Amino acid sequence: NAGVMQNPRHLVRRRGQEARLRCSPMKGHSHVYWYRQLPEEGLKFMVYLQKENIIDESGMPKERFSAEFPKEGPSILRIQQVVRGDSAAYFCASSPWTVSGNTIYFGEGSWLTVV
Amino acid sequence: QQQVKQSPQSLIVQKGGISIINCAYENTAFDYFPWYQQFPGKGPALLIAIRPDVSEKKEGRFTISFNKSAKQFSLHIMDSQPGDSATYFCAASVQGGSEKLVFGKGTKLTVNP
Prior knowledge:
heterodimer; A: 115 residues; 11 strands; globular; B: six-stranded mixed β-sheet; five-stranded antiparallel β-sheet; 0% helix
């Protein structure tokens, strides 16, 4: 999973601030996924994007959260007006355009702490 | 139902023993069942995966057993080693959909030397 690059690895924000998490997929991958992992929990799907398109955002909270994957540059997960409950590890994953195998590769995560 | 239930929550095994982790699912549309291994502070890494057209898949010391009628699948780690100590997650997804994975809550495996 070293090929999926996430930054920052650790981020501390005060309540009410904005958090921006970035993800560069593996070379050749055009599908990006964001997952959230709360302490002692499994990963929860948030959003699935292709270049310039949101394919499935069924796991995204309705407010304060947004994601994009522009034509150029990394995918961004943006959390506005953070609250303590947003403290979690956010994992990005990527896969190639082909659906065969359904194999997705995870990055090492961005740990958000809201104080 | 999108839930995947995983058990046990934690498991302690002696070196050389067999580690067994179980998962059950509800959604019969699921057709891809991977297992991920996660070390502290790291992202999940794909370990092994199976599709419902086979009942067992083996890769080295790791074996997935799949029971379609019972909607259950399990991971067996043979000859468990201290280096296998990690959290293991089962997951499921529908091929050709958005490919979003539904994860179990994880099993923390400790292999004692």
